[in-house]
Specification:
single chain; alpha+beta; about 55% helix; globular
Length: about 325
């Protein structure tokens, strides 16, 4: 019952923010990328499930703007592009089929941009041939994100529904910048956890070890924030030489920060708030699940390989 109430509250907040225009963020690369990422981070600090839905919506609006298409007025959007475990959508002769995992807002959204092979298509989610299966989402973290497996059963797709053409979705610069936007949300999630830790310590006399853990978390967050802001400025000034590398660096830095926060926070507080404070426990669990969108050592290996090739040693 508690999970349902939380999901309903998140859905209401999401719809209200969209209706008030507070999710009409500056487009990446348009001169105010810092502001865009700061807004996403603020949403992450507020609630990661809410931020996950908001980030997907704002990313979809940015994609549509970059392609020259216009969103349906008042519609809530998402981007569903996962290809986990061999699943994914396929477009064959104008018909969309297949199952996509990790579809946040599965019951809430009005429309979705769905990756189908090398194409991106816009889908009206009111189609009765679209099935949602909540059984595939068993996570405690991000439970309020309304995530499910979504199956498309031969949905007709017209030329007007294809966004950008073959290969456009992942080859455009905005794909990398969207990845940095997700990292900004993760950083906001770190702030939320550390804010809870700071509130816990205000009512106590912290020892030097607790203070050291708190200082370490703040240092990691400050470093990640500085990297994101430097990258945002480079994007807006046209100084980015390798968007994919810069995005990987930002995401790896924030992932490292998140893993530090997840490890250090319970050392400061002990188990009590994890067991007796649902808000604290949910923030911690949400961050643990959400940040695993990052591919860990595979991404770090890609960074190392890129740097060695740049220096001519590979």
């Amino acid at each position: 019952m508690t999970d349902l109430l939380e999901t309903s509250a998140i859905a209401s907040d999401f719809r209200r923010l969209a209706a008030e225009g507070r999710l009409d963020l500056p487009l990446p690369g348009g001169g105010r990328t810092r502001d865009r990422w700061r807004a996403l981070a603020a949403l992450g600090a507020r609630d990661l499930s809410l931020a996950r839905l908001a980030e997907g919506h704002t990313d979809a609006l940015a994609i549509l703007a970059e392609s020259g298409a216009k969103p349906v007025p008042g519609a809530l959007y998402g981007v569903w592009a996962a290809k986990s475990g061999g699943t994914g959508a396929v477009l064959d002769n104008g018909v969309l089929s297949g199952t996509v995992r990790f579809c946040s807002g599965a019951h809430l959204l009005d429309r979705a941009l769905v990756a189908a092979g090398d194409l991106l298509v816009e889908v009206d989610l009111r189609d009765e041939r679209i099935e949602r299966d909540e059984r595939g989402w068993q996570a405690i973290g991000m439970a309020a994100s309304d995530s499910a497996d979504v199956t498309f059963d031969r949905i007709p797709v017209g030329p007007q529904d294809v966004i950008g053409g073959e290969g456009w979705y992942i080859s455009r610069p905005g794909f990398a910048y969207g990845g940095c936007g997700v990292a900004a949300v993760w950083l906001g999630g770190c702030r939320g956890v550390v804010g809870d830790v700071s509130a816990y310590l205000r009512d106590r006399e912290p020892d030097e070890h607790q203070l050291a853990h708190l200082g370490a978390m703040h240092t990691a967050m400050a470093a990640s924030e500085a990297l994101l802001e430097r990258t945002a400025d480079a994007i807006d000034s046209g100084a980015v030489r390798d968007a994919k590398l810069d995005t990987r660096l930002c995401r790896a830095a924030v992932e490292d920060c998140a893993m530090r926060v997840l490890a250090e926070a319970p050392k400061v507080t002990g188990p009590t708030p994890l067991c007796r404070d649902r808000s604290f426990a949910r923030r911690h669990a949400d961050l643990l699940v959400y940040v695993r969108q990052h591919h860990g050592e595979r991404e770090l290996a890609a960074i190392g390989d890129r740097l060695l090739r740049e220096r001519g040693t590979r």
